[in-house]
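Case study B.
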Amino acid sequence: MTRVRFAPSPTGKIHIGNTRTALLNYLHAKKTGGTFILRIEDTDSQRNVEGSEARLIEDLKWLGIVEDEGTVAGGDYAPYRDSEIIATGIYEEVIADLKAKDHLYECFVSQEELDIMRKIQTSQGKAPKYDNRHRNLSEEEKAAFIAEGRTPVLRFKMPEKEISWNDLVRGEVKFHTSNLGGDPVVVRSNGIPVFALANAINDELHKVSLVIRGEDHTANTAQQIAIYEALGYDIPQMAHTPMLLDTDGSKLSKRLGSLGIRDLKAEGYLPQAITGLLASLSMGSEAPVAAEIEELAAKFDLAKMGRNSAKFDIEQVKRLNAQFIQTLSYEQIKPYLDGFMPETDMSEEKIALFWEAIKKNITLLSDLKAEFDLCFNKKGDEVVAEEDKEFIKQALEVLPESFDETTWKTLTSTLKEQTDRKGKQLFMPLRVAITGFAHGPEMGPLLNLMGREIVKARLEQSL
Ligand code: GLU
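Model:
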């Protein structure tokens, strides 16, 4: 049974970059009938941001990504939040075990000493790393540091060896531990494990069978495999996904990488467009479509994930958004309209007509207001040409008494017979007179929606 997890730290927001990791794990779980775990990794209390856990759960839910197990749904392997795991004493036990097996040691090196070490290494053209200088301190040396008032961190004795794994995306990955930056700190001076250790213990605790995460974690994985081996844990399968790039091929910039899902929601993007593009970028071949998350899951195949990085283009999400919106009935879009649909006392039936009339003309839900204004509040700035004014007067004379979905057709056929006008000459002055724009929603549904009173007033006003 596949067990995957998304393990955000509550330090910020859900953005395009981490949405993709969450999505891939979720789609894989759904496709394989597995379990999707949402774990909150909050061991770094200094970086935690108040309220961000609740926000990220809400944002994921909006995207359609909902946990099978986690802080909200609970589960057989609770707790699912680091701070609660700390309270169970599990980390402490594991740390004691590692110590007993002689995998950890106290390191008293200060930040200044580390900085100097790095500077010297860099000036010698070497990659900066911790030189393991406190690995074999005597009891007297330790006592002297403690007497100086230093508090130690615990470092993991990284064995000298090659670590390799068969990555489900990247194939065989090899790392020599001498390239991992020296013995890593695994426990802070306050006794709390750092990410690499807590995360490895968590995956064992939650019986995670497959870790899908970004390629930027490969060095962490090498380090964590050494820790798993020291603890005698089974190593989960690994899948490191290529990074998303900006449209110009550079690293997904601050602008896009940090593009908050909440901000996109506020601009009127639909989750189906965002997840649709992200899923397709991860599987290559198929053209992206905006689709419900279940549909994406049905098509998802981790084996199709390419090794090359993909370019993320927000304009493409926009296009998918516009295409998808057109396919939705009022009932389908209704749950997303909050905050976009202006206050109105119109009946549901009339709002549904409004939706049908304008849905082909909007890209983002935030465009809705302008369409609403166009229909009910104010005209655009386009004015009727002098030579068309007689024609508009004629239109007023033959304006049908009662309006329905056939009114536009009736009106234009009558005018076509009475005048020599046809095509654009016939339609455009009417469109401009009624809406104040040269482009816009189809006139048939629009006329029916506006009703006789508004249409008559606007025709008169245009004169
Ligand atoms: N808490 C880690 C992060 O936010 C999790 C990384 C992982 O997927 O293992 O980067």
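Residues 443-462 form the longest helix (20 residues). The remaining cases will be described in the next quarterly update.
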